[in-house]
């Protein structure tokens, strides 16, 4: 059986990279040569994937960008392409699903059987019965929202409960109550390095998916020092727009490769 | 401009019903005559819609059941059918989305432009910037998860913060900070009638989407008395499985109509 956390651990070692390339395809930002092509989303993302794979430990397609344009078939083709051409680099489907019982089972079927993702992001607001159905898919990863990098993240996540903010309760639940499968991870935004450090202290070696560097302005040095594990891994540091839209011209793939390499190297300076 | 809350208010008055029929299509539960048909999901749901429309104030398709089976096209066709054949009955897309910025904009495009839903369910864990992008679609409804009817709902929603449980903070934020558009609603489970009463006291006349009667066992009398507004409306009381699977035989549509009528009447006994 393939295990997400084991595959990820092996990818960190083999690639020497903590960079997760986020795939948020917006056709209005594509180069002119792709305009009007029915499979432009697939083609753009495939080129980005092939160009950045040497510098990445994983890819994270955001499902909304595909669903808004009836492009689920292109998302299926894209994930199949990653598995075929870049085996060992796990694909995290960023879907932030959150539901229970038979509905959660349907979402898990969507993510793992239809799209064949290796892991998925989920929302903890409905509690453990919204996490559990995903775990029935043995070896698949479940990455729970904990502390998000947006300003409004604090509306709920920073509320004090039992002497600590809610996101710390979520980290504690994920690490100490919900993780019998050892396939959980957490989303913690790079805009709050001190909070990454706090979460790391709560969750041990659990993988952290960290958005918010690049376009969102998180500090790479502070992020890496706060989130690394004893062996200098433990993080999927995500960058989307700063890499995939590094150039809006015909050199988009090469520009993405350069941006990915620079980001990987900047991260590695501080490991 | 069509307004979700105005359409809903008119539907309550015209239909005399507070029943929302939930559409969670599982092909394994369909009657034999539909087996193997490529459009079985659409056909089943269309038959349920046409049979139950006289007794309902709205419909709530759950997107996961369609997405798990590559049946987004059937969901589009189903919602178009409701709009064409049953105008004035709003369609709530149960998707429980939760994301921010440009990603939330893509999800809103999916729900409102692609699927043409009148309202959508969303998750509040990421705060106001996960609600705001939906509100840019004027007149569309946004129904925020508040207190869910599952056992694990208490894991986060019942945590005390500032002297009250988290779900009350969400109700307060939704009613008093996030609702400039007057198009917000809240999800509050029927399994907690006292909490429905508390939420109603916080939110005034805001529409409440209430799952959990029927298969989940919520008490109809206690629910209605706790959640009704001064004019005896204010609630979308959802029933899914108890109606759509009232019979697994060829009489499924008639059985659904009977179950919907009985549920509407039972609700109306206590208004």
What does this structure look like?
Chains A, B: The active site is at 96 (proton donor). Chains A, B: It catalyses: orotidine 5'-phosphate + H(+) = UMP + CO2. Chains A, B: Pathway: Pyrimidine metabolism; UMP biosynthesis via de novo pathway; UMP from orotate: step 2/2. Chain A is an alpha/beta fold and 271 residues long. Chain A has one domain: Aldolase class I (TIM Barrel, Alpha-Beta Barrel), CATH 3.20.20.70. The first copy, chain A, has 12 helices and 10 strands. In chain A, the strands form 2 sheets. Chain A has an 8-stranded parallel beta sheet, with helices on both faces. A two-stranded antiparallel sheet of chain A has the order 6-7. In chain A, helix 2 (40-52) links the parallel strand 1 (19-23) and strand 2 (58-61). The longest helix of chain A has 18 residues, at 252-269. Chain A is globular. The two termini of chain A are 30 Å apart. The model of chain A has no long low-confidence stretch (mean pLDDT 96). The interface between A and B is large, with 52 and 52 residues.
Summarize the structure.
Chains A, B: Its EC number is 4.1.1.23. By secondary structure, chain A is α/β, with parallel strands linked by helices.
Largest sheet of chain A: 8 strands, parallel
Rg of chain A, alpha carbons: 18 Å
Largest two-chain interface? A-B, 52 and 52 residues
Q: Per CATH, what is the topology of chain A?
A: TIM Barrel
Helix content of chain A: 40-55%
Pathway (chains A, B): Pyrimidine metabolism; UMP biosynthesis via de novo pathway; UMP from orotate: step 2/2
Active site (chains A, B): 96
InterPro entries (chains A, B): Aldolase_TIM, OMPdecase_AS, OMPdecase_type-2, OMPdeCOase_dom, RibuloseP-bd_barrel
Keywords (chains A, B): Decarboxylase, Lyase, Pyrimidine biosynthesis
């Amino acid at each position: 059986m393939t295990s997400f956390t084991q595959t990820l651990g092996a990818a960190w070692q083999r690639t020497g990279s903590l960079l997760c390339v986020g795939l948020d395809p917006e056709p209005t930002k594509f180069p002119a040569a792709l305009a009007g092509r029915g499979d432009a989303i697939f083609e753009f993302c495939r080129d980005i994937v092939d160009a950045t794979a040497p510098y990445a430990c994983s890819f994270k397609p955001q499902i909304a960008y595909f669903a808004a344009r009836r492009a689920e078939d292109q998302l299926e083709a894209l994930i199949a392409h990653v598995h075929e051409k870049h085996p060992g680099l796990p694909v995290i489907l960023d879907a932030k699903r959150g539901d229970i019982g038979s509905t959660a089972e349907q979402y898990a079927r969507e993510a793992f059987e239809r799209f064949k993702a290796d892991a998925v992001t989920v929302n903890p607001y409905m509690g453990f019965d919204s996490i559990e159905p995903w775990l029935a898919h043995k070896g698949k990863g479940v990455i729970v929202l904990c502390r998000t990098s947006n300003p409004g993240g604090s509306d709920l996540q920073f509320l004090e409960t039992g002497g600590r903010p809610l996101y710390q309760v979520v980290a504690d639940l994920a690490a100490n109550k919900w993780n019998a499968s050892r396939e959980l991870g957490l989303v913690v935004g790079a805009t709050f390095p001190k909070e990454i450090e706090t979460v790391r202290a709560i969750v041990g070696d659990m993988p952290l998916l960290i958005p918010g560097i690049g376009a969102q302005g998180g500090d790479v040095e502070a992020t890496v020092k706060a989130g690394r594990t004893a062996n200098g891994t433990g993080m999927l540091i995500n960058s989307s727009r700063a890499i995939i839209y590094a150039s809006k011209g015909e050199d988009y793939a090469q520009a993405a490769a350069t941006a990915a390499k620079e980001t990987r190297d900047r991260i590695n300076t501080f490991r």
